[in-house]
Design a protein that fits this description.
Number of strands: 6
Distance between the termini: 32 Å
Strand order of the largest sheet: 4-3-5-6
Shape: globular
Structural class: alpha/beta
Radius of gyration: 20 Å
Number of helices: 9
Order of helices and strands: EEHHHEHEHEHHEHH
Helix content: 40-55%
Largest sheet: 4 strands, parallel
Length: about 210
C-alpha cells in the first residue's frame, strides 16, 4: 500500500497505484505527521525489508550482491538511468561518501558511461565501475574509443534486456500496455567492445 505526498498533483499515482494521495508540500506534511506519531515507533522498515527483497528478487539480487562482495570498499560506482540502477539505489551499499553516483534531477540517459570515464581519469588509483542499461549505453558507446585510447582502468557493465525497461514499465502501468518505441535492436556488445580492442565477457549468472 502506498501513500504518496507530492506538491505536483499530476505525479500522484503516476508510477504506482496509491491508497492515499496527498497534494501538499512533503516537508510540511511530514512535520505535521510527526506530531501525531508516538515518540518511539521502532524500526519497522528494517524488519520488513528482508521480506520485501525476497519477494522482488531476481537477477538484480545476485548481480548487486556479487558486485558488492567483489569490489573494494572504496570502489566508485556510476549508474546510468535504468531499471537496475533504481534497484541499486536501495540495495547497493556505498561504504564511503561520493562513491555511488546517479544522474538525478534531469535523468540524462547515457550519462553513466562517460561519467565513469571522467572518474577513471581523475582517480586512477580507485576501481571505477560504470553500470548502464543497453539503451543508455548505446547513446554514448562511441566513448569506448576514449577508454581504449587512454587505456582507462574501468569496469563497464551493461544490463542487456533489449528494451527501454523503465519507459516500458511506465507504459504498462499508466497506458494499459500500449507500448510504443521501447524495444531495441542492439548491436552485439561483445563484438562492439572487441572492435575497439577492449576485452569483453557475457555473464549469465553470479
Amino acid at each position: 500500500q502506498l501513500i504518496q505526498i507530492d506538491i505536483d498533483a499530476g505525479q500522484i499515482g503516476m508510477n504506482h497505484p496509491v491508497e492515499i494521495g496527498i497534494h501538499a508540500d512533503a516537508k510540511e506534511t511530514l512535520q505535521s505527521l510527526l506530531v501525531e506519531l508516538p515518540a518511539e515507533i521502532g524500526n519497522a522498515w528494517s524488519d520488513a525489508w528482508p521480506a520485501i527483497r525476497a519477494a522482488t528478487g531476481g537477477p538484480s539480487e545476485w548481480l548487486i550482491d556479487t558486485l558488492r562482495a567483489e569490489l573494494p570498499d572504496d570502489a566508485v560506482v556510476f549508474t546510468d538511468a535504468s531499471e537496475m540502477a533504481y534497484r541499486m539505489h536501495t540495495d547497493f551499499p556505498a561504504y564511503l561518501p561520493r562513491s555511488f553516483f546517479y544522474p538525478s534531477n534531469y535523468i540524462a540517459l547515457g550519462w553513466g558511461f562517460p561519467a565513469a570515464l571522467g572518474a577513471a581519469v581523475a582517480m586512477p588509483d580507485r576501481v571505477v565501475v560504470g553500470f548502464s542499461g543497453d539503451g543508455g549505453f548505446v547513446m554514448t558507446c562511441q566513448e569506448l574509443a576514449t577508454a581504449a585510447r587512454y587505456r582507462l582502468r574501468i569496469i563497464i557493465l551493461i544490463h542487456n534486456d533489449s528494451t527501454y525497461g523503465a519507459i516500458k514499465h511506465m507504459q504498462r502501468n499508466k497506458y494499459e500496455g500500449r507500448y510504443r518505441d521501447t524495444d531495441l535492436n542492439n548491436p552485439d556488445f561483445l563484438q562492439l567492445a572487441q572492435a575497439f580492442g577492449i576485452p569483453a565477457r557475457r555473464a549469465a549468472d553470479a
